[in-house]
Structure prediction request, 233 residues.
Amino acid sequence: MKAFVALAAVLAPLTEAHYIFNRLIVNGASIGGEYAYTRKNSNSYNPAFTNELMNSNDLRCNKGAKAGGVPTYSVKAGDKIGFKLFNNEFIEHPGPGFVYISKAPGSVAEYDGSGDWVKVMENGLCNPSSPGNDGSWCSWQKDRLEWTIQKNIPAGEYLVRVEHIGLHEAHQGKAQFYIECFQLKIESSGTGTPGPAVKIPGLYKASDPGIAFNKWNNPKSYTMPGPKMWDGN
Prediction:
């Protein structure tokens, strides 16, 4: 019985530390409640896995998250945007966080995300030499991911995709993807050219080093998946 209790204590963090980004924060202020400006996924706070997403449109905004029925919030270039976890949870899986944007051709409320996507924020290792250590990840035990909107971003309506990838089971082909999409109208006088552009699906492959990562074999480095982050020009 003691052995069972000990095993359960070890496994609990792997199964219970789930979370979802569904609250919008703008310049430190909470805007609306849960899913106020977020496309609601159908798998609640549970992750989606590598084999479910790599070739699926669900890689855009998560399972069941569709256009329609969600309002759009107006922000400005230079604003600091927070994507906060529900229920005052914390990120308790090791791995990177990202923000990608896709400019809608018209109203973002009707946009399916089939256009180009650009990485505008990445959150990786604060201690790059020990990626196998959970506390080395900058997002560890944080309650949100944050993006300061680049000053040179063109004005428009954007689908804003926030993502955290839990790597604790990635070596078994089961990286955990926590994804949500927010709808933002960005006011800006910027004339930049966000890039490089990618399509989703097509963003990742299951074999990418940053997706099939093994944190348990004492790794000394980590390779960020996806394209390079936009430099703001």
